[in-house]
Amino acid sequence: MKHPEILQKLSLEQKCALLSGKNTWQTQDYPKQGVPAIWLSDGPNGLRKQAGAADHLGLNPSVPATCFPTAATMANSWDPALGEEVGRALGEETAANRVNVLLGPGLNVKRSPLCGRSFEYFSEDPYLSGKMAAAYVRGIQENGVAACPKHFAVNSQELRRMASNSVLDERTLRELYLTAFEIVVKEAHPKSIMSAYNKVNDIYANENHHLLVDILRNEWGFDGAVVTDWGGSNDHVEGVKNGSTLEMPSPGLGGARKLLKAVAEGSLTEQEIDLRVDELLELVLSTTTAMEKAPRKFDEKAHHELARRAAAESIVLLKNEGGILPLKYGKKIALIGDFALTPRYQGAGSSMVNPTQVDSLKDAMEAAELEMVGYCAGYERSGKQNQAYLDEAVSQAKMADVVLLCIGLDESSESEGLDRTHIGIPAVQKQLLDAVTAANPNVVAVVSAGSVIETDWVEKCKAVVHGYLGGQAGAMLAVLTGWQNPCGRLAETIPLRYEDTPAARYFPGRKQNAEYREGLYVGYRYYETANKAVRYPFGYGLSYTTFAYSDLKVNAENVTFTITNTGSVAGAEVAQLYVAKPDAKVFRPAKELKGFVKVFLKPGESKAVTITLDDKTFRYWNVATDRWEVEGGNYQLLVGANVQDIRLTAEIALPGTGAPDPYAGKALEHYRTAHVQDVPDAKFEALLGRPLPEETTAIDRTMTLGELNHSRSPLCWLIAGVLTLLLRSGEKRGKPNLNILFQYNMPLRGLAQMTGGIIGEETVDGLVMEAKGFWVVGILRALVGLVQNAVANSRYQAKLDEQCR
Ligand code: BGC
User: Fold this and answer.
1) Helix (H) or strand (E) holding 90
2) What H or E segment, with its residue span, contains residue 564?
3) HSE of 763, CA atoms in CB hemisphere, 13 A
């Protein structure tokens, strides 16, 4: 224990209450015992401190803060040092606003491009995700405040996000979905971590002993606080028992009462409570001390400039035919597209920042005094047809030498709470693109989107620049003009079509289970192994200069080689190290990223670079020995500019750990060949090593409000009906209602978590009875429960008040 003297001063009631929040963003405080409250705020790409009305969906305003590029954008920089700088600035703003814990970064591996929160996550690759996230955490925590990497773990879809069960084999869990978290925990020591809403192999992540105790705490040595996602505490007693520390937001004192009862009944010990309280005290005290010393202001201008630099380093040039870019002075430019005036620069939901200022491409172009034929919106952001806009765009395109066409995804196309249904851009934008490219062949598509989009229109454009979501400062003009040589590289593959993606037939899990049948073959791991053509491969990005690779040398510790800038302008290259073992006995992806380095070079300059090999370079998770092993034999070390463009190759022989092939004799041909798009039940079960969990819509606390139509109560049907109607009307308006979406996907027990203590477990039990068809008894139970809960909470609060006096 780190704080035995405080633990001694706290009563059991106080300790139990400390393990749930005091309100939406703060923890309990006991001034007499020297325990202050701490403040936790979103989010990954900027601080979202709600000083007034609070919500966890970004609906109410927050204090102004710098909106940095989102994680999906920053990952394209492949620059952990830059990530650390951004983290440092985030931490500074966090401390200046007297927030102790910044809820981020988000580092879930991108299983499918349809996930509504893709913009908030780094990459389809765990190594890149882990390295970027670790950099953020180091930067944030340098200010003494805590980072809270999220969502641990296997959280890949928004549909049924609080009620979905991620079903996957242990090897896929370890190699793909946990490796990024392992890197962040071991290399950056976050003071807290956020557990995911979902279940992992039948057990809620927040109650999952295997995840929270065996792996996170025992294997990786995490000694911080595990914080639930907001409303993600299914059973607080189970959580606390299995390594979860703090339940957020405040469910009133219902959680504390459950803990007290469990201790009284002997199903939980006071020592177990003490362990968790000690972790929380450490988080509270260490961050409070540091914060008290922190300045109350931050340099807004400097952070804005950092946001600009971060965006500039992350923009990816996908196509540049005939050197149309950089733009030449004297050329007449038409700037077309609503995003040029009102930039799409961040995602929607809990990560939504109230920016200190926002720069638009139009303003930047006007300030740069480029020769413009004009600006026009081209399309309605809402997706509504507008012939006048289209005509205006065509006439401007006809007058211009070059057209900058700003397209992409609007705010409602990607958001927390909602998965996308396709990866195309809105139809009105496609129409515009057709019309404008027909009117003028010199079109540069400038894309804003937080994730992968289908680019089947790419042949019609001379150049394509993907800016992702660049944050409040934006840097597109710098790249378009060549003031900044583009040096972003894709942190995720752009497929030819959505149907080509490995989980296309499995994503999202619509019922209880989300089955990860594609196993290890996510992103480029799939395309490279199954030999599937893609539009733009993982790691891809162009530059205004060229680079040559030479002199590869490898040994057991590292790989060294030389990169030369062979062009005429300064630029940066992202050299990537992939490992392959074509003769592997234990099936594995054809190539896996195991290191990378970003090198800035002047024209003609050469630099020798080193990538260090580490414990992750050759390992695989062996499900028979239940540990990391290395297969003996020859490995290829491939150095390249992207996963397909390998420039240098060397081999290394390793003795290996001699473990037996865990899959010997098993019919796993789908996994040996990576033909994983249609894995039959039996084959997936063979990989899992157990039967698939059953799927039944049980009428219990875990039934979602949207599922209440399967209940036996007219009242519940009405609730489900009204929610569905509201949802549909939001969809029709092209503006999804995040609040309704959250409620639709929320299990009944969420009512006890998300109502600040008004509704307690007693009422939830009554509603379950109601749903089971006990119409009158159920509703009476629910109503009586409201009173019981209020009385029990106020008695508990009185005791706490007395003990604090
Ligand atoms: C999100 C978290 C976020 C929390 C608090 C949840 O809905 O999943 O990422 O940190 O709300 O806003």
Assistant:
1) helix 80-96
2) strand 558-565
3) 20
Whether 230 is in the pocket of ligand 1, judged by its Cβ within 6 Å, is yes
Number of neighbours of residue 787 by Cβ within 10 angstroms: 12
Closest by CA to 736, choosing from 55, 43, 116, is: 116
SS3 for 550?
A: strand
Contact 378, 405 (CB under 8 A): yes
Identify the active-site residue in 229, 338, 410, 765: 229
Q: Nearest CA to 49 among 63, 34, 39?
A: 63
For the CA of 48, the nearest atom of ligand 1: 12
pLDDT attached to residue 99: 96
pTM score of the predicted model:
0.97
Distance of CA 509 to the CA centre of its chain: 18
Amino acid identity of 20?
S
Those residues with Cβ within 8 angstroms of residue 382's Cβ, 6 or more apart along the chain or in another chain: 410, 412, 734
Report the distance separating Cα 525 and Cα 697, nearest Å.
Answer: 34
Distance CA 66, CA 196 (A): 26
C-alpha–C-alpha distance, residues 191 and 286, integer Å: 9
Encoding tokens for residue 423? 């990866």
Ligand 1 nearest-atom number relative to CA 148: 10
DSSP string, 346-358: S-BSTT--EES--
The amino acid occupying position 714 is P
Minimum-distance ligand 1 atom for the alpha carbon of 106: 9
Q: Does the beta carbon of 161 sit less than 6 angstroms from any atom of ligand 1?
A: no
Three-state secondary-structure class, residue 292? helix
| Overall average pLDDT of the 270-277 stretch | 98
Among 645, 463, 432, residue whose Cα is nearest residue 538: 645
With contact defined as beta carbons under 8 Å apart, do 185 and 220 qualify? yes
Dist CA 490 CA 359 (whole Å): 24
492 close to ligand 1 (CB < 6 Angstrom): no
Q: Are 765 and 786 in contact (CB under 8 A)?
A: no
- Please give the angle made by the CA atoms of 360, 364 and 370, to the nearest 5 degrees: 135
pLDDT digit string, tens, across residues 103-126: 999 999 999 999 999 999 999 999
21 pairs with which residues across the strands? 27
β-strands 225-227, 192-194 pairing: parallel
User: CA-to-CA distance for 258 and 503, rounded, in angstroms?
Assistant: 40
CA of 161, closest atom in ligand 1:
8
Residues 546-563: tens digit of each pLDDT: 999 999 999 999 999 999
Neighbours of 504 (CB within 10 A): 17
Ligand 1 centroid–CA 57 distance in Å is 7
Q: What span, in angstroms and rounded, lies between the C-alpha atoms of 155 and 200?
A: 9
108 Cα–ligand 1 center, Å: 13
Taking the CA atoms of residue 477, residue 483, residue 487 and residue 489 in that order, the dihedral angle to the nearest 10 degrees is 10
Question: How far does the centroid of ligand 1 lie from the alpha carbon of residue 56, in Å?
Answer: 6
The pLDDT of residue 567 is above 90: yes
d(CA 120, CA 132): 13
Instruction: Look up 229 and say whether it is catalytic.
Output: yes
